[in-house]
UniProtKB/TrEMBL annotation:
One of its GO terms (molecular function) is ATP binding. This is ABC transporter ATP-binding protein. Belongs to the ABC transporter superfamily. PANTHER family: TEICHOIC ACIDS EXPORT ATP-BINDING PROTEIN TAGH (PTHR46743). SUPFAM superfamilies: P-loop containing nucleoside triphosphate hydrolases. Coiled coil: none annotated. GO terms for cellular component: membrane. Residues 27-258 form the ABC transporter domain.
Length: 280
């Protein structure tokens, strides 16, 4: 049976988050407000402010495209990535993703803190529909990459942040997806981890049909992406060729701050080298 080509389609996507006032934080008021809303009685809503995280977002991606998302803090980059991953449900609009997905969005996403690292890997293999033999290979692969040693057989809730990143990254990249979604957390970690992650990432990106990446490292976006979307207060400000969109973004940020932005500051040169294009 032929594998269907990957595709991403976002149509008029809008997403809100409720922000509760201090007066809404007591358990009694929250319960009364929830009950009132459920039965159509007024009250409770005055304590809630809706934050417009995304507004009328629309774009499509075909095999071979690598999309970068830029914008200031709170612009909606990570929120959009999570919506693509199915973590957030749209308030309005539609998100369609066809093909297998790996979401490097939250290091601990999908992990059960009460299970050991090894058990979480096995569970991931089961969710992916792998055979027992293939699941054993998966465990060996992630174990070798993450280098958690004895911690692999301890509950994940005892892991440090760095250990969780290593396990999450290793598991998410062990099975090459058609659609790869990445937040910039994957660049965290010590130098040794970054070197291993870079090598592993090259293999995954090479095999992926579609890549969506969010990062503040502009040299990485110039090297890795074929298209960039600039988000501003939850809306698309610009969508086009990486150099054009990035230059416009940096010019506006620099003008607002009254400075010239050094886009290379704090960026590991190894991460800026060009990755091989995805298949397609």
């Amino acid at each position: 049976m032929a594998i269907r080509p990957a595709r991403v389609e976002v149509r008029d996507l809008s997403l809100d988050f409720p922000l509760y006032h201090g007066s809404a934080r007591s358990l009694k008021k929250s319960l009364v407000g929830a009950a009132s809303d459920r039965f159509g009685v007024g009250g409770g809503r005055s304590d809630v402010v809706l934050v417009h995280a995304l507004r009328e977002i629309g774009f499509s991606l075909a095999p071979g495209e690598r999309l970068g998302l830029i914008g200031g803090n709170g612009a909606g980059k990570s929120t959009l990535l999570r919506a693509l991953a199915g973590i957030y449900e749209p308030l309005r609009g539609e998100v369609l993703v066809e093909g297998t997905i790996a979401a490097l969005v939250d290091p601990g996403q999908g992990m059960n803190g009460e299970l050991t690292g090894r058990e979480n890997i096995m569970l991931g293999g089961r969710y992916a529909g792998l055979s027992r033999a293939r699941t054993r290979q998966l465990v060996e692969d992630v174990e070798e990459f993450a280098r958690l040693d004895a911690f692999l057989d301890l509950p994940v809730r005892f892991y440090s942040a760095g250990m969780t990143v290593r396990l999450g990254f290793g598991l998410a990249t062990a099975i090459a997806p058609q659609v790869l979604l990445m937040d910039e957390w994957f660049m965290a970690g010590d130098t040794a981890f970054q070197a291993r992650a870079q090598h592993r990432l090259e293999s995954v990106v090479r095999q992926a049909d579609i890549l969506v990446l969010t990062t503040h490292a502009m040299p990485v976006l110039r090297a890795w992406t074929t298209r960039v979307i600039w988000l501003d207060q939850g809306r698309i400000r610009a969508d086009g060729a990486p150099d054009a969109v990035i230059d416009a973004y940096l010019a506006e940020v620099g003008d607002a701050l009254g400075v010239t932005i050094d886009e290379h500051q704090g960026v590991d040169p190894a991460l800026s080298r060009t990755l091989p294009p995805p298949k397609g």
